[in-house]
From TrEMBL:
The gene is trxB. Homodimer. GO terms for cellular component: cytoplasm. It holds the Pfam family Pyr_redox_2. This is Thioredoxin reductase. It comes from Alloscardovia theropitheci. Binds 1 FAD per subunit. InterPro entries: FAD/NAD-bd_sf, FAD/NAD-binding_dom, Ferredoxin-NADP_redctase_2, Pyr_nucl-diS_OxRdtase_2_AS, Thioredox_Rdtase. Keywords: Disulfide bond, FAD, Flavoprotein, NADP, Oxidoreductase, Redox-active center. It catalyses: [thioredoxin]-dithiol + NADP(+) = [thioredoxin]-disulfide + NADPH + H(+).
């Protein structure tokens, strides 16, 4: 079996950027991009207006196609498969995919990202990108002077509600309990924002709309007395957390209690020498495409330095 210089697990801005830098350096990386949704979360995004270099904006799938093509142009090889297990115990790292293929490499970059937690209610998937969003920074501008609802009770929900109050005619924060996971300072900030209304003991049970105009309203249920109601809304932002795509690692690198990869020291090095990580599988804070791309560049440079030293 050929031992490669580098394998990139995952695609998206972090994976494709790492592959581009490694390919231009002559390392001919293998990118295992995923079988169902290569390109990461941006594949399910419509217009991206905040990625530098595209003054008119660019569709998320087009941006990912461009990044992949650029990496391939310089020699990256892309396989559309999912990694199911790894063995990082030796100097040569072993990666096994769902299709039964086994690959070996001197370095591995993990860029598998994280997925948004969903409410899993009727209409959520149907209207995703047409009124249902999981990223205020990405989509808030599209709901200027329109009623917005944010679902969640943690710091992320408070931060998104505060950010969206710059755009929406109103922002309603809905939480299924009267107890919040958010820090006191973030909760007080939301309560003191005159454009934010907080509704507790309530859950969203259905998203309603039409093909022409997207989301029009949501159905609500009171978690205490079971009463139901309907609220008119144009933008529904779901901020109930993320799920890092790290299950396949199974203790091969250090993870925190939420499943995020823990960096070891400076840079993108993980707890295992020769294994690096970039993007939303590591980043709990920024979760932006440009940040993931920058981290992918860092991981590639760290991997190059490791290869030169070993």
């Amino acid at each position: 079996m050929t031992v490669r210089n580098a394998i990139v697990i995952g695609s998206g801005p972090a994976g494709y950027t790492a592959a581009l830098y490694l390919a231009r350096a002559g390392y001919k990386p293998l990118v295992i991009a995923g079988a169902l949704a290569p390109g990461g979360q941006l594949i399910n995004t419509t217009e991206v207006e905040n990625f530098p270099g595209f003054p008119e904006g660019i569709m998320g799938p087009d941006l990912m196609d461009n990044m992949r093509e650029q990496a391939e142009k310089f020699g990256a090889e892309v396989e559309y498969d999912d990694v199911v297990s790894v063995d990082f115990s030796g100097d040569t790292k072993i990666v096994t995919t769902d299709m039964g293929e086994t690959y070996e490499a001197r370095t591995v970059i993990i860029a598998t990202g994280a997925s948004y937690r969903h409410l899993d209610i009727p209409g959520e998937e149907e209207f995703s990108g047409r009124g249902v969003s999981y990223c205020a920074t990405c989509d808030g501008f599209f709901f200027k002077d329109q009623p917005i609802v944010v679902v969640g009770g943690g710091d992320s929900a408070m931060e998104e509600a505060d950010f969206l109050s710059r755009y929406g005619s109103s922002v309603t924060l809905i939480h299924r309990s009267e107890n919040f996971r958010a820090s006191k300072v973030m909760l007080e900030r939301a309560k003191n924002n005159e454009k934010i209304t907080i509704i507790t003991n309530t859950e969203v049970t259905e998203v309603l709309g039409n093909d022409d105009n997207g989301v029009q309203s949501i159905k609500l249920r009171n978690t205490v007395d079971g009463s139901e109601s309907t609220m008119s809304v144009k933008g529904l932002f779901i901020a109930i957390g993320h799920i890092p795509q790290s299950d396949f690692l199974k203790g091969s690198v250090e993870l925190d209690n939420e499943g995020y990869i823990v960096p070891s020291g400076k840079g993108t090095q993980t707890s295992v020498p020769g294994v690096f990580a970039a993007g939303d599988a590591v980043d709990k804070v920024y979760r932006q495409a440009i940040v993931a791309a920058g981290a992918g560049c860092q991981a590639a440079l760290d991997a190059q330095a490791y290869l030169m030293e070993h």
